[in-house]
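Following up on my earlier thread - several people asked me to post the actual chain instead of describing it. Fair enough. Here it is, all 163 residues.
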Amino acid sequence: MIDFRDLVEDFQKLAKSADETELAVLSGIISGLQAKREQKKYSYISSLLQLNKDVSHTSLTMTMPNTPLVHNELHITHGGMIATLIDSGMGILANSTVSEGYATVTTDIQVRYVKPAIGNHLTCKCELIHRGNKTIIVEGKVYRDDGELCAVSTGNFFILKMK
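Reply from S.P.:
Thanks for posting it. Predicted structure:
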């Protein structure tokens, strides 16, 4: 079990010695946890990555701040974070097309990275490609602030009946 006093002490030590970038990351983590607690976000990952969505019937747009939290050692967005953004967007879109009592899960996803993901925000645009009785296919594209495509993906989603 995690001791609250130890956690607070560790956090205070870290915060006191943190540089500006580390403080920004810590602030984002705290804001994300607060958003999840207040049910402003649907999952911890969407809260921590500060994902924002706009869903229509057959499309979805999702944005993610491009902060140091999601950067790799080259100071560009880590490919896994781009894949998470795309999978989240495509999954939410797929899930929005099924009836109550059903849900979707990713069966496979293919991500092709085109250009480095730089800038202040990344925008993922998803389109429904196929809606069958058992599977759904969605395409996702991620764009930088300057409008340049940085990743493209297709994902297959299996439709599950929930108990």
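Residues 71 and 77 are 4 Å apart (CA to CA). That should answer part of your original question.
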